[in-house]
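Quick illustration, no need to memorize.
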Amino acid sequence: MNQVICDRIAALRGVMKENGVDYYLVPTADFHNSEYVDVYFKVREYLSGFTGSNGTLVVSEKEAGLWTDGRYFIQAENELKGTGITLFRMLEEGVPTIAEYLAENMEKGQTLGFDGRVVDTAFGKKLEKALEEKEIHFAYKKDLADKVWGDRPELPCHPVLVLDEEICGQTAAEKMDAVRRVMAEKGTQALLLSKLDDIMWMLNIRGCDVECNPVALSYAFLTMEECHLFIQNGEVTDALKQTAEKYGIVLHDYHEVTDFLTDYSYSGKVFYDSRYTSYAFYKTLSEKAETVDGKNPTEKMKAIKNEVELAQMKEVYLKDSAAVCKFIYWLKKNVGKTEITEFSAAQYLDHLRSEIPGYLDLSFPTISGYKENAAMMHYEATQDNHKVLGPEGMLLVDSGGQYIGGTTDVTRTIVLGEISDEIKEHYTAVTMGMLRLSDAKFLYGCTGRNLDILARGPLWERNIDYKCGTGHGVGYILNVHEGPQGIRWRFSEGMEETVLEPGMDVTNEPGVYIEGSHGIRIENVMVIKNGVKNTDGQFMYFDTLTFVPIDLDGIDPSIMEAGDIRRLNNYHKEVYEKMFPFMNEEEAQWLKEATREITR
C-alpha cells in the first residue's frame, strides 16, 4: 500500500465532506490549460502519485479513478500501485470517458467540485451537457487541494525576456494588427487570450515560468484600440516597459484579471477559445457580454513560420544535430568500458547542448530509456532511479533544446550491442515508416490524417501500432508541442484536422513499444514546403531539419524494399555532408562509417 497517497486522498475526502462536495475532479492543468505546468499546479500528481504530463483524477467518497492516454499506460499502472486509484485507459474499448463515468455514477442533485480556473471551458461545457439530466450542481470555485497541500509552492515568477525583433520577422504591432483583422472578420471587438505561448508569440516576449517552456504566466485582452497584458509585477523588466510604451500595451498585475473582466465596459462581442479559457472566466464573460467561441487566431499564425524564423531554425537544427551526433559517438565508444547510466547519459547530452551558442534551456526533460524502460514513451530516469547501460540492447533518447533561434526535438534509438532478430525487424520497420513519410509528395489541402499511413504502414503490415500521433508542430523559441497541425490517423473529440500549410513544421516519429521488452522511436523535424504547381494542383513536400544518423546496427536490409534503402542512403549522405564540418577527426571517422551506404 502507498500510505502517503492513501492519506492524501483521505484528507481530500475529508475536505470534500466539509464543503458538501460529492465528487471532486482534478485535471492536469494550470490557469491557461497548458500542456506542461509548474510544480504549483501539479495537484493531480500530488494527490495521486502519477507523474505523467496528462491525466485527470476523480475522487468520490468510496472511489478514485485516474484517466490518462496511451503514452502513459505502463507508467501509470506502475505509479498507481497500492494507492487504491483505478486506472482508466483512455480511448480503449469499454473504458468510459470522465463525463460518461460521472453521468453513470453520480446521483441526482449531487455536487461536482473543481477549481474552475484549471478546467477549460470546452470540458466544463461537456460536463454540463452530460450531467444536465441529473441536475448536478457545479461547485467550480472550490480549490480544495489548497486545503490539503500544506507546503504547496508559490506561483513561479521570473523576469521576462523581450526578443530582438530581427529574429522574429514581425513586430508585436504587426502581429496584433493581423489578429485584429481576424477579430473583425468574426464580428468581435475584443479577444481574451489565455494560452501562454500565443501571448508570448504575439508580443515577442518569452518567460520561464514553466519548466522547459519559455512562457510567462499572463493573460492578454486585445481590443481594436488597446492591448491589456496581465503579468506578475516581478516579471516586468525595463525592456518590457519600453515595448509596452512603444506599442500601446497596458500593463496590469496578473492577479487583477478577474476584476478587470468583471468591471470592464464591453462594447461588442468577445472572442475566446474554449479550449484554453478557464471555465471560471467563461462564466464571468458570459454574464457580462456576448461571446464568440473559436480557435485563437494566433494559433495558426504562430504555426506558420516566416522566412526569418525558418532561416534561424535551420542554423539551430544543424548545431543541435551535431550535439546529438557527438553524443552517439561518445556513447558507442564508451559503453561497457566505464559506467554509464540512463541518467548520466542524459546529463552528458544535456551538457553538450548547453555549450551551443544561444542555448536557453532544454525543450523538455531528456528521455533516456534503456531496454524495457524505453517501452514507456515518456519515461524519465532520475539520479536515484535508473538503469546502468551495458554493451547489449538499445537506449532510446528523446531530447531537445531551447535556443535563441529555435526549439528542437529529436529522438534516436541507439544499439549498444546484441539485439534479437525481432527487435531488428521492429527497428527497420520504424526506420522505413519514418523515411517514407519524410519523402512524401502530397497535394495542398491534405491534413495529417492523409499522410499518417506512410509512417505506420510498415508497422501495420506486422500487426503493430503505437498509441500516439506520428507528428506534432514545434514552436519557435516556444513550446516543443504546438498546434494546430499534426500527423495522426485518429482525431479524438475536441481535436480538429488542420490543412498542412507551407511554413509549418512537424515532427515525424513512428515507434514500437513492447511492454517489458523494448521501445523504439526515431524522430526528425520537418518543414512543409511548396513544390511543383500544375494543372493538378499545388504539390507539397517536406524539408528535413534534423541530421543525425539512424543506427545501421539495428537495420535488416533484407526486409527493406529498394526505395527504402535508397531513402536511407540518401538521408545518410546528407547527414554526413552537413555534420562533417562540426566533427573532430575521430568523430568524423565514426560518422563516415555510421552513414555508409547499405545494400540488400
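The mean pLDDT is 95.
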